[in-house]
Amino acid sequence: MTDETKPKEIPQATILRKKRMRISVVWIIPILAAVVAIGIAAQRFISQGPTITIAFRAAAGIEAGKTFIKYKDVKIGQVIAVELSEDYERVLVKAKIAKHASRLMVEDAKFWIVEPHVTLSGVTGLDTLVSGNYIGFEAGKSDEDARSFTGLDTPLAVTHEKGREYVLKARSLGSLGVDSPVYYRQMNVGRVKAYNLAADGKSVEITVFVQSPYDKYVTDTTSFWNASGIHVSIGAAGVDVHTESLAALIGGGVAFDVPEFQSAGTPVAANTAFTLYRDRALAMKQPDPDERRYALYFNESVRGLSVGAPVTLFGLQVGEVTAVGLTFDQAKAVFRPRAMITLFPDRIDGMLSPKERAASGASAEALRGKARVQALRRAIEERGLRAQLRTGNLISGELYVALEYFPDAPKAKLDSSRDPIELPVVAGGFAAIEARLGSILTKIDNLPLDAIGADLKNTLASANQTLKDAASLLKRLDEKLVPEGTKTLEELRRAIASADRVLTHADSTFVGKDAALPQDLRDTLQEVSRAARSVRVLVDYLERHPEALVRGKTEGNP
Question: Which pLDDT tens digit goes with each residue over 348-360?
């Protein structure tokens, strides 16, 4: 019982340690591979540059995963996708840029597609024949980052040479293009980098690059002109042919220089704007600050007269034609050709010596304002100064305006109140000849040609009949009078022969024993008597019938 009442012993808990799981060696390699992959991915993410989008009008030769973006021939990115825009107007090229080039992706960065391009200045993009087209890049100067860009339609001529860029403004592009050469004194010192239409749409802006050290010759007095093609001029000295080079002749080019009348000037900053003149003559032309405009109204054709044609004074150029057009004469209700000219008093002044200028009072200082008008009035009204169209080149038919004195020209008055002042003109050389020929032809037209023709026809008929009568008369003379004359002459010849024989044998005849002088003399005298009688008969007959010389001897005439 004691045992039953004794409490039972409570069992003690035993702590058992959990057995550690042992990792299998098989899992070590996958774990290490995953760690390495994560590290590579993290490193790639950290080293990756930005993704940009470039919009092009067309993407010729651009392929995802194959086309690279290059800057200074170094790959800075690769195209990862090529797709169309939402409006299907452009091609969107997505590219991944290297981390080291990410700072180059700014707002004014430029992209363009580089492909083979052959010009007279050389071949660009030749490496693309092997590697394919790539996207060219030019760094900008902005501080603002950008990720969307618009690609250039024309390749940008990139050069890493030292020099400066300048902007040329022209009315048209002409034959110029990217990489067209730039010349200074016929030396290739640069090239055309780009061109685009001005904002107003009325001109073209051309960007040119001039290499160092030649860029120091681009000053504030420099003139640029289009050196494309060939310039040919025909003058008294012969034919003058000028071109900058064969490349400029075929492919175009730009040239610059400082005009002779200008000082060297000071070099200008980059991106300075210049005017691109049409040719060298226009770029080198000396401006006249005191030029004056005048109007000429002609009564003849001005075909061949063009803007820029010279205006000469006794053969020396003192101005040029600035406009050629028409005007309507309301008083006569007719159209008349009109030419606007510009005269340069300083050029006239420069052709005279100081003494001659003082003596003539024709200095540029004296010929200003009212003094100029008065001198012009005296020359026109008193001395007959007139403008005349003349042919400058018979081959091309080009005309120019000549100012000379015509004392016999009709009197003219100068109206100085008109602006521009009208100068009187006289008909040109060919026009005067044409007028005279026209007057002659008019007089010929007024002649009674039909009546003259009829009279001439009758006269010719009478003359023809007269010629026939003369021929008949000569024939009768030949048939009738000639035989009688021949007979008389024959008798006279025999008489002369007899006389000759008498003279030859005179000695034997007069002193010979058996001289037959008396008989021979008697016979000779008889022959002479008969000959004389025949001549007398003929003379008597002609005296009675002188018409026998024309009509001949008739049967009824004794």
Answer: 766 777 776 666 5
Q: Is 96 left (phi over 0), alpha (psi -120 to 50) or beta?
A: beta
pLDDT at 502 over 70: no
- Type of residue at 403: L
Peptide bond into 424 cis (omega under 30): no
Q: Find out whether 190 and 211 touch, Cβ atoms under 8 Å.
A: yes
Q: Which residue has the higher pLDDT, 251 or 111?
A: 111
Query: Among 426, 424, 402, which Cα is nearest to 415's?
Result: 424
Region at 153 (left for phi over 0; alpha for psi -120 to 50; beta for the rest): alpha
Which amino acid appears at position 288 of this protein?
D
Q: For residue 170, count CB atoms less than 10 angstroms from its CB and return exposed for 0-12, middle for 13-18, buried for 19 or more.
A: buried
* C-alpha–C-alpha distance, residues 191 and 87, integer Å: 37
Closest C-alpha to 100, from 48, 59, 51? 48
Give the pLDDT of residue 376. Answer: 79
Spacing of C-alpha 265 from chain mean position: 32
- CB-based contact 146:107 (threshold 8 Å): yes
Question: How far is the C-alpha of 191 from the C-alpha of 208, rounded, in Å?
Answer: 6
Give me the torsion for CA of 373, 374, 376, 382, rounded to 10°.
150
- How much of the chain exceeds pLDDT 70, in percent? 72
DSSP calls for 310-330: EEEETTEEEEEEEEEEEEEET
Tell me: pLDDT of 268 over 60: yes
Q: What is the pLDDT of residues 123-162, one digit of tens each?
A: 555 555 566 789 989 888 888 889 999 998 877 766 667 8
CB burial of residue 443 (10 Å; 0-12, 13-18, 19+):
exposed
* pLDDT recorded at residue 299: 85
CA distance 360 to 433: 36
* Cβ count within 10 A of residue 203: 16
Q: Residue length, the chain?
A: 558
